Amino acid sequence: MESAELLSVSNVSLSFGGVKAISDISFNIMKGEVRALIGPNGAGKTSLLNVINGFYHPQEGQISYRGKTRKRMKPYQAASSGIARTFQNVALFKGMSTLDNIMSGRSLKMRSGLFWQMINVGPARNEEIQHRKVVENIIDFLEIAHIRKQPVGKLPYGLQKRVELGRAMAMEPELLLLDEPMAGMNLEEKEDMSRFIIDLNNEFGTTIALIEHDMGVVMDLADRVVVLDYGRKIADGTPTEVQANQAVIDAYLGVAH
Amino acid sequence: MLYREAGQFKTSYAADQAMLPIRQDRIALVLLLVVAFLGVPVLGSDFFLSSIMIPFLVFALAAVGLNILTGYAGQLSLGTGAFMGVGAYSCYKLATYFPDTNIIVLVLASGVFSALIGVAFGLPSLRIKGLYLAITTLAAQFFLEWCFIRIEWLYNYNDSGAIEVPQRMLFNIAVTGPHATPTTRYLVILSIVAIMTLVAANVLRGRIGRSWMMIRDMDIAAELMGIRPLRSKLSAFAFSSYYCGVAGALMVFFWLGSAEVEAFDINHSFLILFMVIIGGMGSLTGCFMGAAFIWVLPVIIRAIPPFFGLDMLAATTEHISNIIIGSLIIFFLIVEPHGLARLWQIAKEKLRTWPFPYASS
Ligand SMILES: Nc1ncnc2c1ncn2[C@@H]1O[C@H](COP(=O)(O)OP(=O)(O)O)[C@@H](O)[C@H]1O
Ligand SMILES: [Mg+2]
After folding, report:
1. What confidence category does residue B157 fall into, taking pLDDT thresholds of 50, 70 and 90?
2. CB distance A103–B210 less than 8 Å?
3. Residue of B202, B222, B225 lying closest to A120 (CB–CB)
4. Strand, helix or coil at A86?
């Protein structure tokens, strides 16, 4: 299991007009691991996730997922091939309840046709109930039963992040991309979130790529770490290795290049 | 009878997912349907049926159509009037070509044509949003109005340029044309509106309705959950325009009896939009509240001065109701975008927890 490669990014470059967000980056993610992406603000971490799930199309390089290489793919194709994601600035469906937000993660797994939905009996109804059960399990797992029916727009930030994780979990992804899942959280919330991520990885075997600034969290969670700075990869290895790496220390201390 | 859910424990997800999980709401709906199907036709005068209830139902259905697109799928449209027109002219042509077919089947079929036209004019929604999209729907409105005047075939080359509703029978009773009684027409419209509203409610709380709201609230995240924006937006346009088209056909065949292009002009697009705004974006109940409010308020205001023995010009009462409606639209847009329906919901919420507001769930 450990040896299988799930995703590999080869020589990817991405620029916006004159701004080079990512320069010639290569790295891979193994099946079942927790892979952290770290680096100062503006290093290109979010852009890299956007490339992986098809929001941005890199000018150079290629990505292979489950051994299939592709140059362009649409976000919904990424979704249907098992890639889910959360956003740095929570991107929930604000007008919908917690329950509906997480149910929305099941969209791709629902099949019943328009006719059955119109009369809401038979397949449409059974399907809705069946998916509701899965969603309720996720709600229990994330300990958010008390906000089940509340519109998410009014929830505190920490809970919104949790609902967003739940929505991604509902997709039962093979690869889960988490963009700063603990940003702006207090210690207790971070501990809860770390616990969810570890459980998700251990119990469901979900492969996780995670952007995080808190080195303590990265040390605890990650199997391997990629370090980016100014769009370039400056280090790649286990948390202990990268922490000892001189280039990484320089980047974080702001030494002039 | 208190409005409480005490003792009503939902023991299954099916029960929890029911349209109206609280028993009192279900009882209220049944009562409402009994009044609408039995009380109103028995007690209501012909004037009440044909000038208040029938137009109210037609507009409520059109508001459901627009609300699906604007309130649920987040795509603003100013072409409602014209989409209603497509339904009406289609129904007229269908009635010409298929004189022996059940008129209700033709009304329901005519919605398909407005759905197709709606999809065609919804295509730009993939690239443009908000106000810009509203402007393309405005272009649709004017283009279709032009068609309704210039394409004489649409009104069978009548000199008047109007479509005149022929008489059609159902079980030996005249349902359209001059001999159809207000009661018959009311009951036909009521049945269609009730069933179509139920269908809309079903679709809106299932996968398809959720996909519309996902696109409305956060389109990039929706795409990441596997929603295809084009498919989802166009299905909203199709669904919405179908409802508007059927409303337009009902309007001409079961209410006005004949119509020219003016019945489908931009004023009607705005009228329906105001009903949706006042009633509440993203609420089916709101569509009915908004339609009732905007259609009935002027009638009431007109009746008030004579009631007190005052003599007021018709123009004055009309201005007064315009001022009231105008201020309310501004109020709702700024303060409560979810409209009357939301105010009603808040009132119910208060009642549910009264007198212990802190004991809410
Ligand atoms: N959509 C965009 N348009 C223009 N520039 C962008 C866009 N997205 C990211 N960038 C630029 O790319 C660089 C990397 O940004 P980002 O990937 O968000 O960094 P990080 O997530 O590591 O903080 C920044 O200089 C940012 O300004
Ligand atoms: Mg970022």
Report:
1. confident
2. yes
3. B202
4. strand
Length of chain B: 361
User: For ligand 1, atom 1, which residue shows the shortest CA distance?
Assistant: A16
User: What's the token pair of residue A81?
Assistant: 């091939």
Contact A85 B211 (CB under 8 A): no
Q: State whether residue A142 is helix, strand or coil.
A: coil
Average pLDDT rounded to a whole number, residues B234-244: 96
| Whether domain A1-82+175-257 has CATH 3.40.50.300 | yes
The model's pLDDT over A217-242, given as tens digits with 9 standing for 90+, comes to: 888 899 999 999 999 999 899 998 98
Per residue in A153-167, pLDDT (tens digit) is: 889 988 999 999 999
pLDDT at site B322: 84
- Atom 11 (ligand 1): residue with closest C-alpha? A21
Domains, chain B, in order of start with CATH, read 35-353 (1.10.3470)
What integer is the mean pLDDT of B208-226?
92
Tell me which residues of chain B, numbers 198 to 237, contact chain A at a CB-CB cutoff of 8 Å: 199, 202-203, 205-208, 210-211, 213-214, 216-218, 220-228
Full-model pTM: 0.88
Cβ neighbors of B213 (< 8 A, separation 6 or more) are A93, A95, A96, A100, B72, B73, B74, B282
Task: Give the domain ranges of chain A.
Answer: 1-82+175-257, 91-172
Q: What ipTM was reported for this prediction?
A: 0.88
d(CA A133, CA A99): 11
Q: Phi and psi (nearest 5°) for A109?
A: -90, -5
